[in-house]
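Page 37, top half.
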Amino acid sequence: MIGLFCVGAIFLLLYYILFLNHNYFVKRGVPHHKAVPILGNAAPYVLQKRHISEVLQELCDAFPKHGFFGYFDFWCPVYMVKDVELVKKICIKDFNHFVNHRTQFSAEHDPLFANSLFSMNDSRWRNMRSVLSPAFTGTWNDDDLAAQCTVFLFAGFETVATLTSFMAHELAINSTVQAKLRAEVDATGAKLNGRRPTYEIIQEMTYLDMVVTETLRKWPPVPFLDRRCTKPYLLEDLDGSSVQLQPGDSIWIPTTAIMRNPKYFPQPEKFDPERFSVENRGTIDPNAFISFGVGPRNCIGSRFALMETKTTFFYLLSRFTIESGPKTQHPLEIKTSSITMQAKNGFWVRFRKRS
């Protein structure tokens, strides 16, 4: 009898887990794809069949007439917001309703990440952001200082390494772009006449900025941004329908899907730095470029990452040309087991010393 009771209890528990939130979006009238039990809509990524950015882009393309749709991250419901105007409302205009990230760390078990700027919430985040924005100055305690340094080190290294790798690959297979960039590097080097480049000099290199920006558009560091609703909020769709969000509800913003949407960037699969020229920038919605986030909670280290990458390529192209080789993979296959953008078989290019 006890055994039968245990079997029944286990069956009920499994049923509850399998169909937890099964009708969540149906009840709210939100468009969505049917989810796989437990794995949700991320099943192809969890099973390492496709990269998460590809999964999200396919889902976004399936709802062309909607600004958002329902998505199951395993059994957790998420509102996937893909319309740029809605993104602007959530991250800028109505930011006070979405101050925090969804990810939470335990201060007891993981004090470094729990005390980092990324994980901080509400007024504590605002205070730390205001302190860190100018530089590492202020009177915050040792634990907070260690937390910020640790996250800046790991996040900064990963972002710059990824950006540098993808940019080297794109320059190797786009020789015309590389030649134009190399000409700008040489002209800047001649102007410096042996002196080291300053921040101002690097900032004046407009084509270098165009190439870096286009690399970030095509290969953003993270596949999505996240926000957590902190105040009741009415999320309105493009067709006039709406859904009432409550504190605790999750928002995802698919970076790759937005920046590879031909509505915002024509011929999105083409590597074209000219789309960010002075003449063409006016045709781009600035809120569609979200590689480093958007609004007050954007990446605090973006300027440093950009300067580090630009300086690296200034010195690199001063001395070498970057060429494709027998191991260079094009088009690139993305590593399906990684949440960030990584090449499946690594990055392979040749550096030929310039005469």
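Page 37, bottom half:
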Amino acid sequence: MFSNASVLKWAPRLASVLPLVIVKDPLTWMPSTCRHPYAVRLHMAQKQSKTCPSPHLAKPVSVAFQADRVLRYDSLPALWRDWHAEYYDAPYPRLMLRSEDLLFDPAGVARTVCDCLGGDLAAEADFVIEGGKKGVAFGHAQDTKGRRDALAFYGDATRRFENYAPDDLAFVAAALGDFAPFRYFRYDRGVS
């Protein structure tokens, strides 16, 4: 953690840090990861597939934030599970928020977070909710969704299933069905 402290010329006291973890529905995160893998190294068949992650869910993946430190996972669902388990099961305080809640009710989530931390949301709080990752920046090879497009996409409950065959959903259910955050954040709905 904080491996680039030498670049920053300081390292925070870990006791003074509250990790904020944004959790995204694995069924929408996996196709997004196929389009924009960042540090995730996909199996060659996944990269070449226009239907990724289906039918390649069971293929191994790896993550390399640093060239000399590669983490390997059995599958994309296993990566999602293990990544979030580190925070969900952590012995230290942390705050985990659903990405979808931030998208649909940013002010309500901000108020709840402020309440949780013992503060108040400033009455004049201004939410810049358009254009944060819009455009070809951030390593995206193509334009990304703006908030309006994201609301339409994520607001349609059937869209989360469109990249998956029944066998894929069964694989996801087997990989994540017993994982508490998958159920806690209600991502298990319709997956079985």
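Margin note: The radius of gyration is 18 Å.
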